[in-house]
């Protein structure tokens, strides 16, 4: 018998099954099966399924990015400190706090002074620049005298000291300022220096979209009402009208509103505006553009703009309101003006000698850079070298995939052996924007193009017109030339091209189609890319002055470089390279100018038309430029083919193929495929696969064959696997985990079967391990659709699933209504899938009927109901009126009335029988009379009507063939796929076979890796013959035929029965006497999207088992690749015969007793979960340094000092793998608190106050007890209750600050936008020294990773504690030096009792019975029975002394907990503290912790 491994791979799951099977003799057995789950949050899964790639380290990477920004800011500050210190600009108190000897430019430990405040002897901080402050006060007293008055304490009110910086920035543009003030300005620019804009980001895709602030002029009563509320129109001061009506006027009258306004001009000339609320995340480009426009129009620098605005409106909020994110050039220009003016006014402060000292200080060892800037002066040093220096963006070239044909070799020193080794790696793939790739893609596309006449059917197939339309090579090159003028091509372009050439008849235009994708419903084809780059270049060059022939200009090759042997490259490629590679806007402009100068074209005109050329997408092909340059000459035809472009090696191979000369490098299969090519000129117009064989001796076969003969070969691959090499973290995780699971299965069962092994040394484990010989004879694999599809396809599928769920819900609602309709005959069952399909087909048939009537219900109303997933009762009644016009039977032409639809008179009928073509979709189904369906048997619709057309079947007259063709062509003209099936005499091309030959990257990768395990000698194909891919369509059919769906229902039924008991109802199922089984169901409110398969993790193991039992014969038989006469030989092996000896549609069982064995195996399966409790790990930090680890200087080839990357050797470097605390940082607040708790306060936005309880937590007594209560009095409802949502809305806060003096009982008060609130809880200090000792934080959610269990001998009971993450980290750092076996994850606390074990999320525990506690030997963990398996639980989370669990097999809850009814499958947190049986034993009190491997084998239990 064959030893077969079946795998079912999903986004976060691996189902596996190991079987032995002899299918021909119907013998076999299940050796083992299992489910391996990789826990992943539902939002991450949902994002992946909808096409969004998500990394589990994404959040951590984001925080690291922010830290790097702070680090670079500090590095610039340190460099500024060093320069300003040499210049003598720093105030004494500030300079004294900086270390200029060891840690150059850094603040001394525990000090970080502010440059504008100095601490006096009493400890108070005083503002340093009072002279300038007083000058500013004079300005404000002139413009805003009301701000200044004498307070009751006799002191005059002040304006903020910090506004002085804006005054100084304005003053420095024209007047001399003190050197200390200039230092403050310079350091201020380091903090806020603007957004660095990459090329392309300035291009607004939607030019009609604007960020606009509009003030409401008036709110007009329309006289209309909705739900008792009056509707109002809003008119803005500029005359525009809001595009929606409002019901509440309070937030609108006299207000200024911010919108993203989209303006469109309709064909009538009318201007239409739509208003969208501002989303700062999505609309930041529009907001940025508006802010920059305002600053430009003011003709001021940013500092002037802010200061003058404050002078005019002192209450103006600056950050985030007046000045939002703007481009760096604004700040850079202002700083350049300031520093230039100050150097001009105070030259004595910026002497040549000081400049030389500064660059010597900054670059003591970098002589080259010192020389390059020695004459540039302080303006350049501050602006370009320090403040606005932008490091080059890191190359992302390593992320580009490699070519399958071309490789490069180089020498590299092995870090472990310190010896030089030859490394071979693939050449990087070419960008899809490259002109060469686009030509290659176009020839490939053309070779696959076919044009058909849909109306001319020959031998049951549409007539292929391609050979008639493209008879000569000139015809092909003409079509190629036409396509090079288009960015994308659609079907209509090709048909129109041939019509203009008089090759097709315009009158019959709709009769023609191409072989590429066309959506019959939308009447549009998919757009295929052509020569986007060339077309974009041409359109712009046509506008450039002085270029007459753009095609000649682009095609002409010129020398790149000054040397004589420099390569000749076309201008098109040179221009492409500039646009592709240069990201910086200034560098890009400079490159364009140089290109124009080199090629003697008008520089200004050229730059004007290319400066806003959008950057190319980072999208790459499958081949390298080098490979395409070799393949393309063989693919061209006509005037584009020239033998001189064929490389020498390929030319020699071609000659040997023609002459028949022996060459061991040319395989026999290549000679066989090129046997018809006898002349050198024959080697043109070759399809890609043939060109690949000619050039590289292979096409889909892999270059270097890998065979994993030993189990340790998988471990070697995993050790060498480069993290992030797949660029999709979810796929990468499932690939590597799959290989680990397969390796574990191999080693575990090979040991049991005494398979020979060898001992190999594992360098990481530092010991010898066993490596077993070949074990698996076949591997069968099914990939979940979300795994094998690319992001855009996953997004489409996700949307389609959502639409189908809505449709299914609507259909159920209608069936529910029909069930209660006395006029509808038969038994209507809303939850019957077959009846749901029946109604879907019925409504589809009526909707697509060309004679459909809308006399009782309008078409618009019908479409509205069809789109509604939750129609009202009135909607359904209206819809029924429309449905009652009836569905026309395709075979007889008789109408089928809605009232009889659910009787035994009618059936759903497969147009092409399932026994011949396994397509169970609605496009292969119609509704017809049952007698006709029975008589049709195993024939296609067309065969049946061709043979029996015109006959009467039990009173039903069949259409004649001509009548049938006419009827369906008219009735189903909008459903081309169904029409094709109805008119097909032969079996259509197989959709299953296309799935089997899946060429998508992820699928190819996984199949390729698994093929290495079972590949036989001399196999060169990427997918081994012993690796059988299986599709979900096949496994669904086999599960049904093998009775496994019924067995699955039996396995999960106890959960539904339990819910019936809990809810005291039969809403979750009932005993159905007709099927003699418990019929599962769920209430209407949770039926949408419910899937009984998905509620249990073990369904992955079940799917894997079916995959393992699916033979290649099954896939051959079910795929339409096989013509019918070839299927007969497989029927005896696969199909069951009935009593008459006729073949049924049902497949034979793999072996006798198979369903019963499956159920037993599943019930005894323990699910395995991947854990992630790693808290810290040692990191290897590297940094650039002139000295090596030994302290010696690094020198370059020229003997000069050179920076090299070196490892950090000083101190401990630990990486925390979990979020240590929440982002909010609080300060200590001094009030009385309960024991073990502290009070902290934090600033909170006023808009966050939602109730009286939150109001009471405000620390400022005046705000809490006077201002806000008075403000709330203006926002009382009819019951005199405060409306917090309105009072603290954006408009409410605006009113608060406008009337703040009145609300504060006549006393002045600063505007309030944020308030300090306190809270009492368990928080810990961020650090122990400096400012960190004053900062308090709360543990982050989900960081309670360890729940400690102790045994109290004295009280004879267990004690429990959840260990905070900060304590875990501190302990693990202390014990990190110990051997792994001596470490404990937490610091045990003897006062709690004797330490037993810790539980972490995804740990499994066993809950023993009283008998098992007394006698543990009753539990054999290697052979748990069904009852014992049901007592295995998974730890979910812990808090305080409580620990929560869920049974190991539960994947999703059938019913979530409802707080109102207090009912749910589990407890209030949708988790358990007690067992699921009705004894309700507290799990933590008696559980045993299990040690479990990837396969679900339990090796140890801690009791």
UniProtKB/TrEMBL annotation:
Q: What is this protein called?
A: CRISPR-associated endonuclease Cas9
GO biological process terms, alphabetically, are:
defense response to virus; maintenance of CRISPR repeat elements
What is the top EC class of this enzyme, as a single word?
Answer: hydrolase
Which intervals hold domain HNH Cas9-type? 832-996
Q: Which GO terms describe its molecular function?
A: DNA binding; endonuclease activity; hydrolase activity; metal ion binding; RNA binding
Q: Which UniProt keywords apply?
A: Antiviral defense, DNA-binding, Endonuclease, Hydrolase, Magnesium, Manganese, Metal-binding, Nuclease, RNA-binding
Pfam families per the record? Answer: Cas9-BH, HNH_4, RuvC_III
* Needed co-factor(s): Mg(2+)
Q: Tell me how this protein assembles.
A: Monomer. Binds crRNA and tracrRNA.
- Assigned EC number: 3.1.-.-
Function recorded in the entry: CRISPR (clustered regularly interspaced short palindromic repeat) is an adaptive immune system that provides protection against mobile genetic elements (viruses, transposable elements and conjugative plasmids). CRISPR clusters contain spacers, sequences complementary to antecedent mobile elements, and target invading nucleic acids. CRISPR clusters are transcribed and processed into CRISPR RNA (crRNA). In type II CRISPR systems correct processing of pre-crRNA requires a trans-encoded small RNA (tracrRNA), endogenous ribonuclease 3 (rnc) and this protein.
Cross-referenced Gene3D superfamilies: 1.10.30.50, Ribonuclease H-like superfamily/Ribonuclease H
Similarity section: Belongs to the CRISPR-associated Cas9 family.
Please give the InterPro entries that the UniProt record associates with this protein: Cas9 (IPR028629), Cas9-BH (IPR032239), HNH_CAS9 (IPR033114), HNH_nuc (IPR003615), RNaseH_sf (IPR036397), RuvC_III (IPR041383)
What does the entry's domain section say?
A: Has 2 endonuclease domains. The discontinuous RuvC-like domain cleaves the target DNA noncomplementary to crRNA while the HNH nuclease domain cleaves the target DNA complementary to crRNA.
Q: Which residues bind Mg(2+) 1?
A: 8, 782, 786
Which residues of this UniProt protein bind Mg(2+) 2? 8, 786, 1100
Note down the stretches annotated as region Disordered.
1194-1213
Active site annotated at which positions? 8, 910
């Amino acid at each position: 018998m064959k030893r077969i491994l079946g795998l079912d791979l999903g986004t976060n799951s691996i189902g596996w099954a190991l079987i032995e099977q002899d299918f021909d003799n119907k013998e076999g057995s299940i050796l083992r099966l299992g489910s391996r789950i990789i826990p992943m949050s539902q939002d991450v899964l949902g994002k992946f399924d909808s096409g969004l790639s998500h990394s589990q380290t994404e959040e951590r990477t984001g925080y690291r990015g922010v830290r790097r920004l702070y680090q670079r800011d500090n590095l610039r500050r340190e460099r500024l400190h060093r320069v300003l210190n040499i210049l003598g600009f720093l105030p004494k108190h500030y300079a004294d706090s900086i270390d200029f000897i060891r840690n150059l430019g850094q603040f001394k430990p525990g000090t970080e002074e502010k440059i504008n405040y100095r601490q006096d002897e009493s400890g108070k901080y005083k503002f340093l620049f009072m002279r300038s402050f007083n000058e500013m006060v004079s300005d404000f007293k002139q413009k805003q005298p009301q701000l200044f008055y004498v307070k009751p304490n006799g002191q005059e009110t002040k304006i903020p000291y910090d506004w002085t910086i804006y005054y100084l920035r304005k003053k420095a543009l024209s007047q001399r300022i003190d050197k200390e003030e200039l230092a403050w300005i310079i350091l201020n620019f380091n903090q806020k220096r603007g957004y660095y804009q990459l090329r392309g980001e300035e291009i607004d895709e939607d030019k009609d979209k604007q960020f606009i602030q509009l003030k409401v002029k008036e709110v007009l009563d329309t006289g209309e009402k909705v739900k008792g509320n009056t509707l109002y129109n809003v008119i803005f001061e500029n005359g525009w009208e809001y595009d929606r009506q409002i019901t509440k006027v309070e937030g609108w009258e006299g207000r200024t509103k911010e919108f993203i306004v989209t303006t469109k001009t309709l064909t009538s000339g009318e201007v239409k505006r739509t208003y969208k609320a501002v989303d700062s995340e999505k609309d930041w480009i529009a907001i940025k553009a508006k802010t920059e426009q305002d600053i430009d129009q003011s003709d001021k620098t940013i500092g002037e703009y802010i200061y003058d605005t404050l002078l005019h409106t002192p209450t103006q909020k600056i950050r985030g309101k007046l000045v939002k994110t703007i481009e760096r050039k604004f700040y850079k220009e202002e700083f350049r003006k300031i520093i230039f003016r100050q150097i001009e006014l105070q030259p004595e402060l910026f002497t040549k000698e000081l400049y030389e000292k500064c660059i010597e200080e900054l670059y003591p060892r970098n002589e080259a850079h010192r020389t390059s800037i020695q004459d540039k002066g302080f303006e350049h040093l501050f602006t370009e070298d320090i403040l606005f220096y932008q490091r080059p963006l890191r190359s992302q070239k390593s992320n580009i995939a490699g070519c399958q044909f071309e490789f490069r070799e180089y020498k590299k020193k092995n870090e472990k052996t310190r010896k030089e080794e030859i490394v071979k790696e693939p050449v990087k793939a070419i960008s899809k924007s490259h002109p060469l790739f686009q030509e290659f893609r176009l020839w490939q596309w053309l070779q696959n193009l076919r044009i058909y006449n849909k109306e001319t059917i020959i031998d049951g197939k549409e007539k292929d017109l391609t050979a008639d339309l493209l008879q000569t090579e000139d015809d092909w090159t003409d079509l190629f030339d036409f396509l090079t003028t288009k960015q994308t091509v659609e079907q209509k372009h090709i048909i129109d091209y041939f019509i203009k050439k008089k090759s097709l008849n315009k009158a019959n235009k709709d009769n023609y189609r191409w072989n590429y994708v066309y959506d019959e419903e939308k009447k549009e084809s998919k757009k295929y890319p052509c020569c986007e780059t060339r077309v974009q270049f041409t359109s712009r060059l046509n506008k450039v002055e002085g270029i007459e022939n753009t095609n000649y200009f682009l095609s002409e090759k010129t020398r790149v470089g000054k040397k004589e042997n420099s390569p000749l490259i076309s201008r098109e490629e040179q221009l492409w390279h500039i646009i592709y590679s240069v990201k910086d806007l200034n560098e890009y402009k400079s490159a364009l100018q140089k290109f124009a100068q080199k090629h003697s074209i008008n520089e200004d005109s050229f730059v004007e038309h290319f400066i806003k050329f959008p950057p190319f997408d980072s999208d790459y092909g499958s081949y390298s430029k080098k490979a395409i340059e070799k393949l393309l000459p063989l693919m061209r035809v006509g005037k584009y083919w020239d033998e001189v472009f064929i490389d020498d090696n390929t030319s020699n191979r071609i000659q040997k193929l023609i002459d028949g000369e022996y060459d061991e490098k040319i395989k026999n299969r290549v000679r066989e495929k090129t046997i018809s090519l006898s002349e050198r000129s024959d080697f043109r117009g070759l399809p890609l696969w043939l060109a690949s064989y000619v050039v590289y001796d292979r096409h889909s076969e892999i270059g270097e064959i890998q065979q994993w003969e030993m189990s340790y070969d998988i471990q070697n691959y995993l050790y060498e696997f480069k993290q992030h090499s797949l660029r999709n973290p979810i796929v990468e995780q499932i690939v590597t985990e799959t290989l680990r699971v397969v390796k574990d299965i191999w080693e575990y069962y090979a040991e049991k079967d005494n398979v020979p092994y060898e001992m190999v040394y594992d360098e990481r484990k530092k010991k010898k391990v066993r490596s077993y010989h070949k074990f698996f004879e076949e591997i069968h694999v099914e990939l979940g659709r979300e795994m094998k599809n690319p992001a855009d396809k996953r997004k489409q599928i996700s949307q389609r699933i959502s639409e189908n769920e809505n449709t299914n819900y609507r259909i159920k609602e209608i069936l529910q209504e029909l069930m209660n309709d006395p006029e509808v005959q038969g038994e209507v069952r809303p939850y019957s899938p077959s009846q749901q399909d029946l109604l879907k087909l019925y409504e589809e048939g009526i909707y697509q009927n060309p004679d459909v009537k809308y006399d009782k219900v309008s078409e618009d109303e019908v479409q509205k109901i069809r789109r509604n997933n939750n129609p009202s009762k009135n909607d359904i009644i209206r819809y029924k009126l429309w449905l009652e016009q009836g569905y026309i039977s395709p075979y007889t032409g008789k109408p089928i009335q809605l009232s009889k639809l659910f009787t035994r008179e009618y059936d759903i009928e497969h147009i092409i029988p399932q026994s011949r073509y396994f397509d169970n979709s609605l496009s292969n189904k119609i509704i017809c009379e049952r007698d006709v369906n029975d008589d049709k048997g195993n024939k296609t619709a067309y065969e049946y009507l061709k043979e029996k057309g015109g006959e009467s079947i039990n009173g039903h007259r069949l259409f004649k063939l001509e009548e049938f063709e006419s009827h369906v062509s008219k009735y189903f003209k909008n459903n081309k796929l169904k029409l094709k099936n109805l008119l097909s005499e032969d079996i259509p091309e197989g959709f299953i076979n296309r799935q089997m030959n899946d060429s998508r990257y992820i699928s190819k990768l996984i199949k390729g890796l698994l093929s290495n395990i079972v590949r036989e000698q001399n196999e060169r194909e990427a997918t081994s013959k012993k690796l059988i891919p299986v599709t979900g369509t096949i496994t669904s059919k086999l599960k049904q035929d093998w009775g496994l769906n019924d067995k699955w229902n039996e396995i999960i039924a106890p959960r539904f029965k339990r819910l019936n008991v809990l809810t005291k109802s039969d809403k979750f199922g009932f005993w159905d006497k007709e099927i003699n089984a418990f019929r599962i169901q769920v209430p209407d409110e949770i039926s949408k999207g419910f899937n009984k398969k998905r509620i249990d993790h073990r369904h992955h193991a079940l799917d894997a088992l079916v995959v393992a039992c699916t033979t290649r014969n099954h896939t051959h038989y079910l795929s339409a690749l096989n013509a019918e006469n070839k299927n007969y030989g497989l029927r005896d092996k696969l199909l069951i015969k009935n009593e008459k000896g006729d073949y049924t549609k049902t497949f034979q069982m793999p072996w006798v007793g198979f369903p019963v064995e499956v159920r037993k195996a599943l019930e005894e399966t323990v699910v395995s979960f991947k854990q992630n409790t790693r808290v810290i790990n040692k990191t290897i930090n590297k940094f650039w340094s002139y000295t090596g680890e030994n302290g010696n200087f690094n020198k370059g080839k020229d003997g000069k000092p050179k920076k090299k990357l070196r490892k950090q050797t000083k101190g401990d470097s630990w990486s925390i793998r979990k979020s240590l605390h929440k982002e909010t940082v609080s300060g200590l607040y001094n009030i009385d608190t309960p024991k073990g708790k502290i009070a902290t306060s934090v600033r909170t936005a006023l808009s966050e106050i939602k109730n009286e309880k939150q109001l009471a937590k405000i620390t400022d007594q005046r705000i809490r007890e006077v201002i806000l209560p008075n403000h709330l009095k203006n926002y009382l409802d009819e019951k005199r209750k405060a409306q917090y949502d309105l009072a603290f809305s954006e408009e409410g806060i605006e009113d608060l600050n406008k009337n703040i003096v009145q609300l504060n009982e006549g006393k002045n008060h600063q505007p309030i936008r944020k308030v300090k609130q306190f809270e009492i809880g368990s928080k810990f200090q961020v650090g122990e020294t400096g400012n960190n000792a004053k900062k308090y934080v709360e543990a982050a959610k989900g960081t309670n990773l360890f729940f400690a269990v102790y045994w109290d001998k004295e009280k004879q009971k267990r004690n429990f504690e959840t260990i905070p993450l900060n304590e875990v980290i501190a302990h693990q750092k202390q014990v990190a030096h110990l051997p792994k076996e001596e470490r404990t994850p937490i610091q045990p606390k003897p006062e709690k009792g004797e330490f037993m074990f810790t539980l972490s999320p995804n740990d499994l525990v066993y809950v023993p019975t009283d008998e098992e506690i007394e006698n543990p030997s009753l539990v054999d963990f290697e052979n748990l029975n069904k009852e014992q398996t049901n007592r295995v639980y998974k730890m979910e989370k812990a808090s305080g002394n409580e620990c929560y669990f869920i049974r190991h097999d539960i994947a999703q809850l059938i019913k979530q907990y409802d707080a109102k009814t207090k009912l749910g499958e589990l407890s209030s947190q949708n988790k358990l503290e007690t067992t699921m049986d009705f004894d309700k034993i507290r799990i933590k009190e008696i559980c045993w912790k299990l040690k479990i491997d990837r396969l679900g084998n339990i090796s140890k239990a801690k009791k």
